[in-house]
Design brief:
Layout: H1 2-20, E1 59-66, E2 69-77, E3 82-90, E4 94-105, E5 113-119, E6 122-123, E7 129-139, E8 142-151, E9 183-184, E10 195-203, E11 208-214, H2 220-225, E12 234-240, E13 246-253, E14 257-266, H3 300-316, E15 319-327, E16 330-337, H4 343-357, E17 364-371, E18 374-375, E19 378-382, H5 383-389, H6 395-402, E20 404-406, E21 415-416, E22 424-436, E23 443-458, E24 461-473, E25 502-516, E26 519-527, E27 532-541, E28 548-559, E29 586-597, E30 602-610, E31 616-625, E32 631-639, H7 643-646, E33 652-660, H8 661-665, E34 672-678, H9 694-698, H10 703-708
Parallel strand pairs: 16-17
Antiparallel strand pairs: 1-2, 1-14, 2-3, 3-4, 4-5, 5-7, 6-9, 7-8, 8-10, 10-11, 11-12, 12-13, 13-14, 15-16, 15-21, 17-18, 17-19, 19-20, 22-23, 23-24, 24-25, 25-26, 26-27, 27-28, 28-29, 29-30, 30-31, 31-32, 32-33, 33-34
Protein name: YjbH domain-containing protein
Signal peptide: 1-25
Keywords: Signal
């Protein structure tokens, strides 16, 4: 099928770009032409697309409304040429859709930019369209676009599909769509009548742009099912964008409607706060210029006292000393970085501190950053390089070239630090929990208080838990439950804490270890998450200097009661989850996993195994992490569950975002906030939600991540 090969070719181009293209931010200078966001939240004019890419890595959230139509769109410039969108719309019902556009050719002196796009290619197909579009800047302030579209973009003044020359099958567009939605509509691609569309953007100044377009979308569904009246194919509008952070638009649409849009824009390659709020690092102490040299740590007694003093100094700088020892002229320090998000910055800060604190006869520092009580790597730095390079041109690159990375699976240093800080920590804080994209309600939310604690039995053995109490919200208003023949491991998730208003979110103990070189392990037991208790074990093979990691996880879990107490429950015994009877639901699950760091900010992950509903399959993930800690990614899971049994959405998929707090507040912290935008929560492809999985703990302290963040070494 030619249309299928077109999609495979598109996917292949994207895969090749991920593997080969460097990740570089595209700056927007004073004279640059900013992309215009459409009512679909995509680069374009008003309703029609254009062959314009957003700055690489740009994230946006767009809200638009006209007539009875409402749209909320999340956009991400995945690669310099690839734009992806996730949309939640209200037409006559709530609807979810995904878009993608790929820039095939850049604009030249004569040649226009050319792009291929797929609108609503993964959803119910209510907006399903494919198109080719070309865009040319004809003067410093005028940009024109024109294209040919299929699907909804081929419904006004359409003509016989020119691709029918290749195969007459292209002349007819299939109308059948999967009842559950959420599948790739490849059989429709570039089929049926085609039509032309186009438009112009006229930039009045740096802030204001006037728009006009000819739309090839008949809006037949809206005309049939709402009060929308389409009287003209012409749209007109104006946008105002005073800065790089937001864009507002107003439009007169289809001869009958007034529309509005608002777009919030985030550049994850930069920080929104002013830089320089970090506390200045301790200057490197040059031994030949030191007036007060550190005394030798020659005897065991002196060395033990010096380690205790070093621990107190490191604590003031945000580090927790685990232990230290001197062998010859080498000082080895194992520690945890509790302040700096990038381990490279922690290594740089601690190296500067040691030039001031270590005896003069120490020539080499061996630093072993750790998390959860396990050493992640061994970073060897010569003291003379610190003294020589601190103020040297190109110090970042030169210092990285002289550093040695290795594994740190050996025993802890001989002298352990007697940490006086409390082993028991607790706190109470407010929480906001939002559930999106319910078929009956676009958003549900709770606001309440969360009490949490952590008791460190040993650095690698921790007891932790949290309890939540809802103060107000509507997550307890459980409506329609998706019909499914699977055990209700996720689809009844809103019922947890619905009557009680809260309960034990988790209560578990975790043990981390280093069973051998390049090996890491974790065992967690207790009430692991809101829905399940049990035991989870994991092992990870991850060499410090290798882009590839392999892991395996084995879990036994039992389903918890809806009151989120200490009890357990069976799965429901009927499709609508109204009858719960039988034995408590328990299951053994597990996965083998492969992780690959492309060294350009992209990390791919594949997990193959058994899921909570007893289904077997694989989850495919791709995340992009920026040097300042922002992370955006997506995933999908395919198992042996039939799409009809899975329910609405057909299979599990979603987009996830993680925001580092240090990029927002301007001061160093390892705290982050994350969320997942998923179409719907269903039973197929469901995994345990485990805090502290090994790859997330380990990767930041390995060479790949260190190299990506080495620009922060001297900060």
């Amino acid at each position: 099928m030619v249309s299928f090969y077109s999609f495979i070719g598109f996917a292949g181009a994207v895969a090749a770009s991920i593997a080969a293209a460097p990740v570089v931010a595209q700056g927007t200078g004073e004279d640059s032409w900013r992309a215009t966001y459409t009512l679909f939240g995509t680069p374009g004019i008003i309703d029609m697309p254009s062959a314009v890419a957003l700055p690489d890595g740009e994230i946006s959230a767009n809200l638009s409304a006209f007539g009875d139509t409402r749209r909320a769109t999340f956009s991400f410039q995945v690669l310099p040429r690839l734009t992806a969108n996730f949309r939640y719309s209200l037409i006559d019902a709530y609807d979810r859709s995904f878009d993608a556009q790929y820039l095939l050719a850049d604009e030249g002196r004569i040649r226009p930019a050319v792009a291929i796009g797929f609108r609503d290619f993964l959803g119910t197909g209510r907006y399903s369209s494919e198109y080719f579009v070309a865009t040319k800047t004809v003067s410093p302030n005028v940009r024109v676009s024109g294209g040919i579209g299929w699907g909804r973009l081929g419904t006004v003044n359409g003509f016989t599909n020119p691709l029918g020359i290749i195969d007459q099958g292209f002349e007819t567009r299939p109308t059948d769509r999967p009842g559950t939605g959420g599948t790739v509509l490849a059989k429709q691609f570039f089929r049926g009548d085609a039509a032309f569309f186009g438009g112009v953007e006229w930039r009045l100044n740096d802030e204001w742009t006037v728009l006009a377009e000819y739309s090839s979308d008949s809006y037949q569904r809206e005309t049939d099912r709402t009060d929308f009246v389409r009287e003209s194919p012409l749209n007109f509008g104006v946008t105002w964008q005073p800065n790089e952070s937001y864009q507002l638009g107003a439009y007169y649409l289809y001869g009958s409607e007034v529309g509005l849009s608002a777009t919030i824009i985030v550049d994850p390659t930069s920080r929104p706060t002013v830089s320089g709020l970090d506390q200045a690092p301790i200057p490197v102490a040059v031994r030949s210029e030191m007036t007060a040299a550190a005394a030798s740590w020659g005897t065991p007694q002196v060395q033990a006292g010096a380690v205790q003093a070093l621990g107190a100094i490191m604590s003031a700088e945000g580090f927790r000393l685990i232990g230290a020892e001197i062998t010859g002229s080498t000082l080895r320090v194992r520690y945890e970085n509790g302040r700096y998000r990038a381990e490279a910055q922690g290594v740089g800060r601690l190296s500067r501190l040691l030039t001031n604190a270590a005896p003069l006869d120490i020539d080499t520092f061996v630093l072993e950053p750790s998390q959860n009580g396990i050493a992640l790597s061994s970073v060897t730095i010569r003291r003379g390089d610190m003294e020589q390079l601190e103020n040297a041109p190109n110090a970042t690159a030169l210092s990285y070239d002289r550093v040695l990375f290795d594994d740190a699976s050996g025993p802890a240093p001989a002298i352990l630090y007697d940490d006086p800080t409390p082993a028991f920590l607790w706190g109470i804080s407010p929480y906001l929990e939002v559930t999106l994209f319910d078929g009956e309600s676009p958003a549900r939310g709770d606001v309440g208080l969360e009490a949490s604690f952590q008791y460190e039995l040993r650095p690698n053995l921790v007891l932790a838990g949290s309890y939540r109490q809802r103060l107000l919200g509507n997550r307890d208003e459980v409506g329609r439950i998706s019909e499914s023949t699977l055990p209700d491991v996720r689809r009844t998730g809103l019922r947890y804490g619905a009557e009680s208003g809260g309960g034990i979110e988790n209560l578990f103990v975790s043990w981390y270890a280093r069973p051998g070189r390049d090996l890491y392990s974790r065992v967690s037991a207790g009430y692991l998450e809101r829905g399940f208790a049990g035991v989870s074990s994991e092992v990870l093979w991850k060499p410090v200097d290798n882009q590839l990691a392999l892991g395996a996880e084995l879990n036994y879990s039992i389903m918890r009661d809806f009151d989120m107490g200490f009890g357990f429950r069976p799965a429901c015994s009927d499709i609508n989850c109204t009858d719960y009877s039988g034995e408590d639901y328990d299951i053994v699950t597990g996965h083998v996993s492969a992780y690959y760091d492309f060294d350009n900010g992209f990390v791919a992950q594949v997990d193959v195994g058994r899921y909570l509903a007893g289904d077997w399959g694989a989850t495919f993930s791709l995340d992009r992490e920026f040097n300042n800690g922002w992370k955006v990614g997506g995933y999908f899971t395919l198992t042996n569950v039939e799409f009809e049994d899975f329910g609405e959405g057909s299979f599990d998929k979603g987009i996830r975002i993680e925001v580092p707090f240090d990029a927002l507040v301007g001061t160093p912290t390892r705290d982050t906030a994350g969320t997942t935008l998923s179409s719907l929560e269903r039973d197929g492809g469901a995994r345990l939600r485990i805090d502290g999985r090994l790859y997330d703990v380990v990767e930041g302290g390995h060479q790949g991540q260190m190299q990506d963040n080495w620009g922060r070494f001297w900060r």
